């Protein structure tokens, strides 16, 4: 069996608030991400996902425990492996009045990457034909694509994405999920942090489930959470036709039920349906 690309042993992060309250955000986490494909890091908001990612990237200090990337202990040897790691944890600071291509070209120069990498990254994230438009005119989905393109400039072996579909419309969600799936199939190992079970079911090969900072389960997606085919949610809206179109664009399987209702497969969290339908003003 190949060594994990990401590994943590007994990882722990403790905070103390200004009022002196003691908080344990990550509890003795043992995490192992295999090489290749898309690995889901699934848990509700506030479960410790982002804190774990920040520790792996050297953006936060662990209280105790061990972390390794490509077998190298971090943060001690993080500089040795950072060229192999790309991450989108927060929105990068692009120049609004510059085009997407110009922003990437400037970044490539600053990190010593040849300009041919810019063309490759643009094509890889599906921005070809839109790269000459100003960044400030991009949709949220296009801005997220450009952020991912920036991480791909150096040809990373590991890509870490923290909730990459947050705030996107259904079409943007579908496009980003398709792109992540393709990246995993290209040989890049992708760690996808998400609170949406249906997203993990649709995109990921393996998954680690976290709750209250503790690892609850880890393994094959189909074995742990299924493919979503067995879960069906009944949705009643005023305009079922339009709602069905938006849900399908977001990647859900939708069929017509009785009395104008919709049957949505793979929608294991009703909040996910509400989020998709709220964007165009369709309320459940």
Can you walk me through this structure?
The chain has 284 residues and is α/β, with parallel strands linked by helices. The protein has 2 domains: 6-221, P-loop containing nucleotide triphosphate hydrolases (Rossmann fold, 3-Layer(aba) Sandwich); 232-278. The protein has 10 helices and 13 strands. It has helices at 49-56, 78-81, 100-110, 116-124, 140-152, 170-185, 197-203, 221-224, 240-249, 270-278; strands spanning 6-16, 22-33, 38-42, 64-69, 72-73, 85-88, 158-162, 189-194, 206-211, 214-220, 232-235, 253-256, 262-265. The strands form 3 sheets. It has a 6-stranded mixed beta sheet with strand order 6-7-8-3-9-10, sandwiched between helices. A hairpin with a 5-residue loop joins strand 12 (253-256) and strand 13. The radius of gyration is 20 Å and the shape is globular. The N and C termini lie far apart (47 Å).
Biggest sheet, strands in spatial order?
Answer: 6-7-8-3-9-10
Number of domains: 2
Q: What overall form do the CA principal axes indicate?
A: globular
CATH architecture of the largest domain: 3-Layer(aba) Sandwich
What is the string of helix and strand elements? EEEHEEHEHHHEHEHEEHEHEEH
Rg over CA atoms, rounded to whole Å, is 20 Å
Query: Spans with pLDDT under 50 lasting ≥5 residues?
Result: none
CATH superfamily of the largest domain: P-loop containing nucleotide triphosphate hydrolases
Number of helices: 10
Distance between the termini: 47 Å
Mean pLDDT over all positions: 87
CATH classification class of the largest domain: Alpha Beta
CATH T-level fold name of the largest domain:
Rossmann fold
**Helical percentage:** 25-40%
Strands, total number: 13
Strand content: 25-35%
Largest sheet: 6 strands, mixed
Structural class: alpha/beta
């Amino acid at each position: 069996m190949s060594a994990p690309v990401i590994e943590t042993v007994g990882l722990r992060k403790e905070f103390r608030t200004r009022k002196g309250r003691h908080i344990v955000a990550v509890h003795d986490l043992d995490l192992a991400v295999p090489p290749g494909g898309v690995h889901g890091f699934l848990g509700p908001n506030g479960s410790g996902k982002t804190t774990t990612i920040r520790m792996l990237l050297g953006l936060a200090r662990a209280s105790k425990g061990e972390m390794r990337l490509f077998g190298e202990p971090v943060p001690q040897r993080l500089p040795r492996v950072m060229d192999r790691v790309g991450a989108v944890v927060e929105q990068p600071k692009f120049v609004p009045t510059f085009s997407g291509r110009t922003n990437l070209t400037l970044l490539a120069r600053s990190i010593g990457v040849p300009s041919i990498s810019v063309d490759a990254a643009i094509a890889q994230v599906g921005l070809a034909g839109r790269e000459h438009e100003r960044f400030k005119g991009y949709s949220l989905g296009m801005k997220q694509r450009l952020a991912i393109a920036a991480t791909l400039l150096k040809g990373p072996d590991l890509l870490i994405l923290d909730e990459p579909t947050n705030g996107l419309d259904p079409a943007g969600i579908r496009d980003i999920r398709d792109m992540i799936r393709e990246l995993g199939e290209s040989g890049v190992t992708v760690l996808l942090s998400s609170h949406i079970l249906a997203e993990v079911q649709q995109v990921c090969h393996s998954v680690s489930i976290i709750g209250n900072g503790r690892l609850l389960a880890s393994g094959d997606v189909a074995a742990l959470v299924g493919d979503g085919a067995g879960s069906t949610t009944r949705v009643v809206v005023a305009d079922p036709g339009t709602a069905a179109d938006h849900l399908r664009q977001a990647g859900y399987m939708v069929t017509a039920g009785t009395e104008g209702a919709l049957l949505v497969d793979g929608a294991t969290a009703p909040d996910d349906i509400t989020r998709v339908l709220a964007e165009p003003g369709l309320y459940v």
